[in-house]
Design brief:
Number of strands: 8
CATH topology: Rossmann fold
Distance between the termini: 22 Å
CATH superfamily: Alpha/Beta hydrolase fold, catalytic domain
Strand content: 15-25%
Largest sheet: 8 strands, mixed
Number of helices: 13
Number of domains: 1
Length: 292
């Protein structure tokens, strides 16, 4: 893979890329890195795409936003600005997981003309996340913990032991999957206090305690709309926010040509936990596209 840097939306982005052809932009999640797509990137390149996986704003080695803003709107604008800076056209596709999924839903709504298809994993459209049942509220406890100022002291203790626990909690303990190197790489993205603070700001700015879930919540408008592009949605059975029944509802609500896959035994990291199955489904989903 080739390593490069590019400026988009005022941010100095580091990214890896492989292949030539229409742009395939891959967006990672919180305390993750582009390496979560290491199995998919060569597949996309072989399929005739220019696969580009940037490190998101504030996550090393990408630059920090000067104004400290970490809203979903910022992430979505970053994605669309990267499309522009990288020379993307209407055949481009966008792929996102975790916070990269939030960014993907937002980018599709902000500038639908830029993207022909999307692949989204682990975070369904907002309307399918509410109301949250008690088990899911418990599962999302880090959303509440990260709101606290003391989180900036606790999270980095014992070489970011909390992040190790969180990854293990969300991984579903998938047999035969070793996430150690991915976790270590994720830690390295936030070792600087300023970067950790901004990573936590993802939760503080996007799920503010005084407006989240009310009509005054700014993130609601951007995340509540469904895309107009065919979308493949991926989710693991050990990541409990989506069931087989709700996956059917999600796919039915998405535009014609959309599809979904519930990966049995997979947790929150399907691109790592079930690479062969995911790669094959993504390849098949993207195969029917206009000529470049």
């Amino acid at each position: 893979m080739r390593h490069h840097r590019i400026t988009a939306n005022g941010i100095d982005f580091s990214y890896v890329e492989q292949g030539d052809g229409p742009l395939a932009l891959l967006l990672h999640g919180m305390v993750e890195t582009p390496r979560i797509y290491r199995h998919l990137i060569p597949v996309l390149a072989d399929a005739g795409y220019r696969a580009v996986a940037p490190s998101l704003r504030a996550f090393a080695p990408t630059g920090l936003p000067a104004d400290g803003s970490m809203t979903v709107a910022d992430l979505a604008t970053d994605a669309n600005a990267l499309h522009e800076a990288l020379g993307g056209d209407a055949n481009a596709v966008i792929i996102g997981s975790d916070w990269g999924a939030y960014a993907t839903w937002g980018a599709l709504n902000q500038a639908p003309e830029r993207w022909s298809k999307a692949v989204v994993a682990t975070i369904p459209p907002l309307r399918f996340l509410r109301p949250l049942d008690p088990a899911m509220i418990h599962k999302l406890g880090h959303f509440f913990f990260f709101q606290m100022a003391v989180a900036e002291q606790i999270v980095p203790q014992d070489d970011f032991a909390y992040l190790e626990w969180l990854w293990d909690y969300w991984s579903g303990n998938v047999p035969g999957v070793d996430l150690t190197e991915d976790i270590e790489a994720g830690k390295d993205t936030v070792r600087e206090p300023a970067r950790l603070r901004l990573a936590l700001e993802l939760y503080r700015q996007n799920f503010p305690v005084d407006t989240f879930g009310t009509d005054r919540w700014e993130g609601g408008a951007l995340l509540s709309e469904l895309p107009t592009q065919p979308t493949l949605y991926l989710h693991g059975t050990e990541d409990p926010s989506v069931t087989e029944e709700s996956l059917t509802e999600i796919v039915a609500a998405l535009p014609a040509g959309s599809d979904g896959l519930l990966l049995k035994g997979a947790g929150h990291f399907p691109f790592i936990e079930r690479p062969d199955e995911v790669n094959e489904r993504v390849r098949a989903f993207l195969a029917d596209r206009p000529a470049a």
